[in-house]
Each structure stands twice: as structure tokens, then as C-alpha cells.
């Protein structure tokens, strides 16, 4: 980090007025010919201590002329002098998936769906569109995107993260951040990524401890942050609610030691809402800003900490500097928000992008006897299930699964009560093909089965609701959805199941249906995308960004100590009235997601990376660099041929297994989307660069506290999923 040039004496009174600094001068920190570091130092040099302290609280930092901030939901409150001149109004908005809580914006598909595209350009484009809508709506900081390890598929926030693999989620998050921060030069928006770190469940998220070793911390939970920070330079990082090894995330030394130290993060760290528990310990650990109203970071609390020596001026100076520098570096000082925010910032182009993401995120999991795409010979179509229609059935409709479930503070759920419904879009498309559609809301399985039996093909929708504030207790579909699909499949041998979920589901009826589509939470343009896919107007290109297990018993966290965690009495149920911290042991270590299934030789229902197409692909001619010294890149070359009848896109994946001495599970080290013409092959070269942010040849050695490359034989697997090694090769590190 660049040195903080400003210095202050401890004798400066905490409540010194703005006038004490003398007559107002021009604002040299607005000189755009200077660097962000220089400008930040100039501003802080002209500030009183109380003005400097404003940057350490979100509300005070972002409302420069306001002086009084009453306590928020968690209490607190403080009064400050007016900020120095020429500081901007800044407005934070939650937005891992879309600009939440804002009228007139595009409701994009969820983030797990975006990850299923494996398409960084699409993530970039979505970031550009989302930032454009945020700025024009009067908001210039987006709290998002987020990454996690998807340690348990039950976690409530699974749909707002980017899957179980560090490389994929880090790359997709980085592309999104770059779109947000670089895509609109005159409408700059800053990204704050979240939630740091090991924030893997909603149950007792504020009163649980994620207990894990240093190697697992760096290789599994910090690595996606490392990748996205290196590739996109986000303005901020939000620390999480949970404890890590018994210390709250927002006052944990890993903020300084790992995030700002090993990872080299240059921006500022802000807290989650109500995630601060102290003044001095959090400042000392590396927290720079308290989210929402001041509670622990008030002038009175910080002044007392200075007086008793538990906080130094250098710590305060650095925190303020990091916030100001980030605001300047990301354009917030130089591009004021619109005086009159828009209430209709969505555009036709953004809606088309939402439809494209919904299409490319949908995963064709099964397609026996080519039931899909629908053809002109299909004249009678039954559509079954409440989420197909905008007319609610017992409160459930297409809007229910537009995005993740709503929590008490908004977001998700009711974001788009009247999206483009699948029923409407499929009916319109069927009419073009000379087919008719009959709808049954699925409330009665007997009625649904009768509707299905009278049709040439039955399309049945199943769903499950999921979101922030609560974990799921089962992976089964909601509202007897599995029973409904089974009844429909028994009545019609040509049944297509379309799943709108935020996570994996076991599918006990899988053998009885011909086709299965995972559509996730597909946003406001869901019907448009689904209809085009069913008729083959679009081909399926989505791939699973998370493993679908056959049952919860097969998952990496299938013990109460691992999930949901236990209390001192050994129970998973919180003792009545207790504030005890739930202990969640990450004893599976590195074996998260597909790594667990490969290491334990457990066959999943569908593996990470899986996805079918309306055409077929073959892999041939693997060539791998024979040897490397561990510093030079390794090239993996192969041929992907379109062997089927239609144009299509394949996501070729490269996995690497390190020498057995490392004890490492195999890992994804590269992927490429290729679209060879029918009957033709495309040559693919994927480079494994030892110096890239994901450190593909390295493991974290806890003895030396460093990333290390072991000598020995490295095994390369190339194929269409984590469980399918179509091609295998090796190279050695001498």
C-alpha cells in the first residue's frame, strides 16, 4: 500500500471545528491531474479530526453536509461537523444480482445462473448494465457481487453467489466488477465485494464460528477473493457477520494479514450491516468503515480509544485514507449523481441482456430420445405448475421464482411480480408452430396428471424458494413438487421437468422423465428464454456451477459438527435464551464441491460442469507441455469437434491433479467456450500459468506460510465436466 503522507499530533482536540482550520481554500483534491493517492492526502491534510472520522462511517462519509446521524437499527448515533468542500454525495445499494430496492430496474437472473454461463463477457456486460441503472437511479456504490465456496447446498444465499469453484467464481465476479467500474466512464460506480470470509450459512450467521485451518482458508475461501481482486481491483470489500476461528470477521486479523497483506487488497474494508462488535479491535484488525449509522465508530468511541492508547492515529489515518482514495480512484468525486434520479432506468437492451443470460444460464441436464427441442409434430402441449403463470396459485406464481426469496429488509422474491411468464411465452411460440397449450396450476396432482395424459408432451415446472436470512432444511422441491412431477411423468411418457431453484435438488423422479432443465431463478425475462430453448430457437449452453448430489447424505458437510454446527452440549439446537456461539467445523478441509465427490469416489446426480446441448461434441488430440520448472506456463492443446446435427457451444474444461505428496484434490485450472461448425473441429489452447492469481500449480504450505510448487508429476484431465475425463495427459515439474 502507498504510504499515508498525512500526520496528526495526538494533541489535536477531537471536536475541533471546521473554522479552526482558517478561511476556506479552493479544493486541490479535485485536481484530476494528480493521482488518487495525492488527492486523498490533500483532502485529509485539510481535514479536522472529526471530518476525517466521517469517512469511517458509511452514513457520515456519504452525506457530507449532514451533521447529525441518529442511531440505526442496531443503536448508536453521532454528530459531526460539516465535511470539507467538494466531497460527493454517495449512495450505497445492495446489488449482487440487480439494483435492489429500486423502481424501474431490470431484474436479471440470479448469480448462480450467471455462473452457469461460464461466460466472462456476459458477466462484464451485465455489470455494465447494472451499473448504468444504478447510477441513473441515483446510486453509485453497489454492494456486490459476492463469492463463496457453496460449502453446503442448503445455504440460503447460494443463489446470490457464483458457485463452488474458486476459479470460476473469481473470474465471473472479476468480470462483473470490471463491467461495473469500467463500463460507464461518465457514470462511475464502485463495487464492494462480499462477504469476507467463510460466510457459508445463514443459520446463526451472526452467532456462529467458522472453524478452519490456514491452508483451507487460503486455498478454498480466500482464493476466489484473491482472483477477483487481482483481476478487477474492486473499491471495497465487505467483511462478514460470522466469526472465523472464534474471532468476528470484522475484527479478525485476517483482514490485515491475509486480505490486505497476502492478497494485496488496496481498497477499503466496510462491514456488513450490524457486523461490527468493537471499536479498537476492529480498527486494529483492518476494518476501515462501519456500515450504516455510527455505533462503534463514533467520534466519542474513537476519541476514548485514542486516549487510552488502544487505537493509534496512524490506524485512523490509514482507514480514512483507504476510503477516500477508493472514492477518488473510482470516480465518485468527479461525477456527481443525477439531481433527479430516474425511476425507469431499465432499457430494451438491458431486457434483451436479461433474456440472454436466462437462456445461456439454463442447463439441459437430461434429454432422452431427443424429446427436446419441440417440433412441428408436437400439437398438444400441457404446461403444469404454479410458477409457469403470472396468476398466483396459493400465492405462488412466476414472480415467486423471478429472483431469490425476499427477506425482512427487501431484495429478491417480489422483485418482479409480473415477469414474462413461461406460460404466456410458450403459448405464443406454440401458436407459431400450430400447437395448442393447456394449463394446469398443479394444485391437484390428479388433475395435473389428467391434463398431462391428454397432451403430446407435458412440461411441468418445479420450484423451491431460497434466500438470505434462512437456510433450507431440505433439497426437495417445495409444495410437493416432487410428487407433482412424478404424477405427471406417470401420466405422460414424454415429460419435461423445468426446475426453478437456487440450488441443487435430488430429483427422485429422474428416471421417469425424458428431459430436465435447470433454469435457476431466471429473472424478469424468464418466459422469453424458456420458450426459445424449448423450441430450439436457442441452443442450451449452460453448465452446472455446482454439484448436484443424489442426496444430502452424499454432501461434504453431512455431519452435525460440520453443518449446521453444534453447541457446548453437543446439540444442533440453540439452548433457550442462549447467546452461545455455534461452532461450525470445516473438517472437510479442501474437499468442497466436486473435489469431495472425486476424492471420496461418490457419484453425484450431476457433476460440476455438466450440461447437454442439442448437438454433440468429441475431444481429441491432446498435447501437453512435457516439462516445466514451475515458473513457465504449461500449454494444454486439444481439438473439440461438433459431431451432432446443429450448431452449438461446448464449455471445455481442464482439471489438474498435483503430485500425491501435496495431498491436493483435483482443481479446475481453465475452461473455454468453443462453437465449432457442424462436422468441424476447433483447436483449443488453454494455458496453465503458474503465476496467475489462482496459482494453479501451487498449494499453501502451512509450515513455510507460503504458496509452494511441488516437484513431481501433474495430471491433466480435459472434458465436459468434473467427472468426465475425456482426455488425460501429464507433465512434470523438475
List the helices and strands and how they pair.
Layout: H1 36-45, H2 49-54, H3 58-62, E1 68-72, E2 75-79, E3 92-94, H4 111-116, H5 120-136, E4 141-146, H6 166-182, E5 190-196, E6 208-211, H7 214-232, E7 236-239, E8 243-244, E9 247-248, H8 254-262, E10 268-271, H9 280-285, H10 299-308, H11 313-329, H12 348-361, E11 363-367, E12 380-384, H13 422-432, E13 436-440, H14 445-453, E14 457-463, H15 481-491, E15 495-500, E16 515-518, H16 526-534, E17 582-585, H17 594-599, E18 617-624, E19 627-628, E20 634-642, E21 650-657, E22 667-674, E23 681-688, E24 698-701, E25 706-709, E26 712-719, E27 727-733
Parallel strand pairs: 3-4, 4-5, 5-7, 6-8, 6-17, 7-10, 12-13, 12-14, 14-15, 15-16, 19-27
Antiparallel strand pairs: 1-2, 8-9, 11-16, 18-20, 20-23, 21-22, 21-26, 24-25, 26-27
Task: Please provide a written account of the structure.
Mean pLDDT is 94; it is low at 1-24. With 734 residues, the chain is α/β, with parallel strands linked by helices. Strand 8 and strand 9 (247-248) form a beta hairpin. It is globular. The chain starts with 35 loop residues before the first helix and ends with a strand. Helix content is 25%, strand content 20%. The strands form 7 sheets. A 6-stranded mixed β-sheet has the order 11-16-15-14-12-13, sandwiched between helices. The protein has 17 helices and 27 strands.
Amino acid at each position: 500500500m502507498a504510504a499515508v503522507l498525512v500526520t496528526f499530533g495526538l494533541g489535536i482536540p477531537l471536536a475541533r471545528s471546521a473554522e479552526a482550520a482558517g478561511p476556506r481554500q479552493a479544493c486541490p483534491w479535485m485536481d484530476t491531474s494528480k493521482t488518487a493517492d495525492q488527492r486523498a492526502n490533500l483532502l485529509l491534510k485539510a481535514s479536522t479530526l472529526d471530518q476525517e472520522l466521517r469517512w469511517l462511517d458509511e452514513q457520515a462519509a456519504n452525506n457530507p453536509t449532514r451533521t447529525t446521524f441518529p442511531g440505526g437499527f442496531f443503536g448508536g448515533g453521532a454528530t459531526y461537523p460539516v465535511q470539507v468542500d467538494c466531497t460527493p454525495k454517495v449512495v450505497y445499494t445492495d446489488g449482487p444480482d440487480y439494483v435492489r430496492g429500486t423502481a424501474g430496474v431490470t431484474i436479471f437472473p440470479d448469480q448462480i445462473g450467471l455462473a452457469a454461463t461460464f461466460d466472462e463477457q456476459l458477466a462484464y456486460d451485465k455489470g455494465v448494465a447494472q451499473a448504468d441503472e444504478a447510477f441513473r437511479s441515483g446510486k453509485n456504490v453497489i454492494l456486490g457481487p459476492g463469492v463463496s465456496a457453496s460449502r453446503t447446498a442448503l445455504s440460503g444465499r447460494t443463489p446470490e453467489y457464483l458457485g463452488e469453484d474458486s476459479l470460476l467464481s473469481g473470474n465471473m465476479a472479476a468480470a462483473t466488477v470490471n463491467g461495473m467500474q469500467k463500463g460507464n466512464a461518465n457514470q462511475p460506480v464502485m463495487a464492494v465485494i462480499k462477504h469476507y470470509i467463510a460466510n457459508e450459512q445463514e443459520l446463526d450467521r451472526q452467532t456462529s464460528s467458522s472453524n478452519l485451518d490456514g491452508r483451507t482458508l487460503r486455498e478454498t475461501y480466500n482464493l476466489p477473493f484473491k482472483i477477483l481482486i487481482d483481476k478487477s481491483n474492486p473499491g471495497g470489500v465487505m467483511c462478514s457477520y460470522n466469526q472465523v476461528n472464534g474471532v468476528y470477521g470484522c475484527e479478525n486479523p485476517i483482514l490485515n494479514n491475509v486480505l490486505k497483506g497476502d492478497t494485496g487488497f488496496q481498497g477499503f474494508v466496510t462491514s456488513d450491516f450490524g457486523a461490527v462488535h468493537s471499536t479498537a479491535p476492529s480498527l486494529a484488525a483492518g476494518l476501515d468503515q462501519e456500515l450504516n449509522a455510527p455505533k462503534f465508530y463514533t467520534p466519542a468511541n474513537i476519541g476514548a480509544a485514542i486516549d487510552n492508547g488502544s487505537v493509534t492515529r496512524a490506524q485512523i489515518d490509514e482507514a480514512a485514507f483507504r476510503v477516500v482514495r477508493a472514492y477518488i480512484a473510482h470516480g465518485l468525486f468527479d461525477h456527481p449523481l443525477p439531481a433527479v434520479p430516474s425511476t425507469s432506468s431499465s432499457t430494451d437492451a438491458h431486457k434483451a441482456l436479461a433474456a440472454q443470460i436466462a437462456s445461456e444460464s439454463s442447463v439441459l441436464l437430461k434429454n432422452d430420445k431427443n424429446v427436446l427441442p419441440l417440433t412441428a409434430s408436437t400439437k398438444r402441449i400441457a404446461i403444469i405448475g404454479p410458477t409457469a403463470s403470472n396468476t398466483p396459485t396459493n400465492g405462488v406464481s412466476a414472480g415467486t421464482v423471478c429472483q431469490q426469496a425476499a427477506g425482512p429488509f427487501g431484495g429478491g422474491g417480489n422483485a418482479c411480480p409480473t415477469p414474462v411468464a413461461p406460460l404466456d411465452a410458450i403459448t405464443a411460440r406454440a401458436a407459431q408452430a400450430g400447437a395448442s397449450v393447456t394449463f394446469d396450476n398443479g394444485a391437484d396432482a390428479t388433475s395435473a396428471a389428467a391434463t398431462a395424459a391428454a397432451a403430446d408432451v407435458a412440461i411441468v415446472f418445479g420450484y423451491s424458494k431460497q434466500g438470505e436470512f434462512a437456510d433450507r432444511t431440505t433439497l426437495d422441491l417445495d409444495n410437493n413438487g416432487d410428487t407433482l412431477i412424478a404424477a405427471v411423468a406417470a401420466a405422460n411418457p414424454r415429460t419435461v421437468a423445468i426446475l426453478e431453484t437456487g440450488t441443487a435438488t435430488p430429483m427422485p423422479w429422474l428416471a421417469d422423465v425424458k428431459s430436465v432443465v435447470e433454469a435457476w431463478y431466471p429473472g424478469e425475462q424468464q418466459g422469453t428464454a424458456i420458450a426459445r430453448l424449448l423450441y430450439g430457437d436457442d441452443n442450451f449452453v449452460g453448465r452446472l456451477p455446482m454439484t448436484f448430489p443424489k442426496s444430502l447424505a452424499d454432501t461434504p458437510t453431512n455431519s452435525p459438527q460440520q453443518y449446521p454446527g453444534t453447541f457446548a452440549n453437543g446439540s444442533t439446537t440453540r439452548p433457550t435464551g442462549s447467546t452461545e456461539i455455534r461452532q461450525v467445523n470445516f473438517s472437510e478441509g479442501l474437499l468442497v464441491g466436486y473435489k469431495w465427490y472425486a476424492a471420496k469416489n461418490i457419484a453425484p446426480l450431476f457433476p460440476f460442469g455438466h450440461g447437454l446441448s442439442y448437438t454433440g461434441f468429441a475431444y481429441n488430440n491432446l498435447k501437453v507441455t512435457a516439462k516445466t520448472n514451475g515458473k513457465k506456463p504449461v500449454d494444454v492443446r486439444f481439438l473439440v469437434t461438433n459431431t451432432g446435427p446443429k450448431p452449438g457451444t461446448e464449455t471445455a474444461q481442464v482439471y489438474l491433479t498435483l503430485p500425491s505428496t501435496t495431498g491436493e484434490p483435483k482443481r479446475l485450472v481453465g475452461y473455454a467456450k468453443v462453437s465449432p461448425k457442424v462436422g468441424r473441429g476447433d483447436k483449443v489452447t488453454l494455458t496453465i500459468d503458474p503465476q496467475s492469481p489462482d496459482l494453479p500449480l501451487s498449494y499453501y504450505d502451512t509450515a513455510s506460510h507460503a504458496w509452494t510448487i511441488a516437484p513431481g508429476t501433474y495430471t491433466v484431465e480435459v472434458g465436459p465436466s468434473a467427472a468426465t475425463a475425456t482426455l488425460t495427459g501429464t507433465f512434470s515439474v523438475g
